[in-house]
Amino acid sequence: MENLPEIFQAVGVMLGMFVVIMCEDVNVRTQLRGHDPSQFRDTMLMSRGFEGGNSQNVTSYSPPSQRKPSPGELCLGEDHSPADEEELHKFLQNLMGFAGPSETSVDPLPSSSPPAVHTTLKGALDHTYSAYEPSELFEITPEPETLFDCIMENVLHMDKAAKYIRKQKERGTFRRAEYERFTHSKAATGVVGMDFEGLESVEDALEAARLGFTAYELQGDIMRAQFAQFSRKLHAQGRSVPGSTVSLSNCSNLSRRIEAPPPFKQLRLVDAAIDWIPPSGDISRQITSLYRYILEDITDPPQCIQKYAIRINGLGGRDRRLENLPDSVLWTLVDFGTDVLGLGNKELLHPFNDEVRRSSFYLSLGADEEEREGVFLSMRHKASEWRSRVWSLLQRALTEIRAYTYDEREGTWIRTRKRATRPTVVNLDGSEAEIAQ
């Protein structure tokens, strides 16, 4: 009984805070029962233990009556109905953010419950304010600095990209060359999806239409780039480049893979080269192009490949800061280079004996023994010549990669306009040869 004034005062203060802070319109406060604001204010003041409806005339403290009023009576008066009390109960639940039933009953307070009621209401107040933390209400996302920043987890967010393009055009900083470099990049053409969510949230109808047009134009440009790449790849696979026999279909060992410690990736070379498009020209140019394509993505991070070099017998070289390419990587790539020429069968590296004659590869070379032997010896001679040549082409490709610049933000290699030059190289057999340009 002696704690009732404190409980009534706490209940009144908290209810007053909810109503004053959460309701901007004073009429909302009168919807509890239809009283005018002054009557509601008087009720709140009475609940704090003061007499009089005007806060300016409060002069004395009046103890509560012996009868225990319900929380509803504190705000609605004694002549309220059960429906009014239930409506107040629901209203307070909504203010406190509860989704389920309230833990605080609106029945008359038992004598043993004041501490629990005070704790429950205080917890409800804390819960209500915790829902309005600024970090939760306002998620600040950085503005993209390039179109590449609009790609997250391999998904292109079209709303960000469209707004970025529109902002550039409005400022007069839009560059068609940069735009096309993005639409034709591996990052853009390799996305797994395009997310248009967010475009419909623009309130201005005209601006929404402009952003939508920009987004669909970007999607169309990327799809055209994807189709062009696919067409070139299909065209290259459907015919042999003039004067060339370079093809992944020539590989006799499809499981050949790089197996070396980091930074080298554990990858299968056929998979690494599956998207390579052979350039026109002679075999040397195509082999060099294939090696460049593989070397650009053979390490993690990609630019780590630039600290390696291929030297004769692992010795010499002008730049002592460069490391020798590991032998396991070097000879795996050389074997792969001869294999794409159709000269990578293991029988071509073995002595010509009865075991070779019984192999399925040898038996497939002709209709009779004389024809098979002639073809085999010719291929073996070519394999020996090309193995030395392929080693030199790999050396040249790695030298060119070291002259490139890697853009970490966009994840692309930037090739220099001037090609890296090479002096005359020494083949494995000791002969000198000038690399074909």
Descriptive keywords:
single chain; mainly alpha; two-stranded parallel ribbon; 17 helices; elongated
Could you explain how this protein is built, in words?
The protein is mainly α and 437 residues long. It folds into 3 domains: 4-137, no CATH class; 147-238, no CATH class; 248-433, no CATH class. It contains 17 helices and 9 strands. It has helices at residues 4-22, 26-29, 37-47, 71-76, 82-96, 114-130, 134-137, 158-171, 176-183, 186-189, 205-238, 269-272, 283-295, 327-339, 354-357, 360-363, 369-402, and strands spanning 151-152, 155-157, 193-195, 308-309, 323-324, 405-407, 412-414, 425-426, 432-433. Strands 1-2-3 form a 3-stranded mixed sheet. The protein has a two-stranded parallel ribbon with strand order 4-5. The longest helix is centred in the middle third of the chain and has 34 residues, at 205-238. The chain is elongated and about 120 Å long. It starts with a helix and ends with a strand.
Total separate domains: 3
Strand content: 5-15%
Main sheet characteristics: 3 strands, mixed
Strand order of the largest sheet: 1-2-3
Task: Report the count of strand segments.
Answer: 9
CA distance, first residue to last residue: 102 Å
The number of helical runs is 17
> Low-confidence segments, ≥5 residues, pLDDT <50?
23-33, 50-62, 97-138, 236-244, 418-437
In helices, the fraction of residues equals 40-55%
Average the pLDDT over all residues and give the rounded result. 73
Shape: elongated
Order of helices and strands: HHHHHHHEEHHHEHHHEEHHHHEEEE
C-alpha-based Rg, rounded: 40 Å
Structural class: mainly alpha
Region (Disordered): 47-82
Biased composition (Polar residues): 53-68
